[in-house]
Amino acid sequence: MLSSCYRIDLVLLGIVLVALSAFGTVRALLV
What we know:
The protein is mostly helical and 31 residues long. The chain has one domain (1-31). 94% of the residues lie in helices and 0% in strands. The chain is built from 1 helix and no strands.
């Protein structure tokens, strides 16, 4: 149970990091 929740947290964290990096890249290209 704890392992599954931990995995979900890692997945969400990865998605957030990818979204932030993508947003930063797009913003840099636009500017």
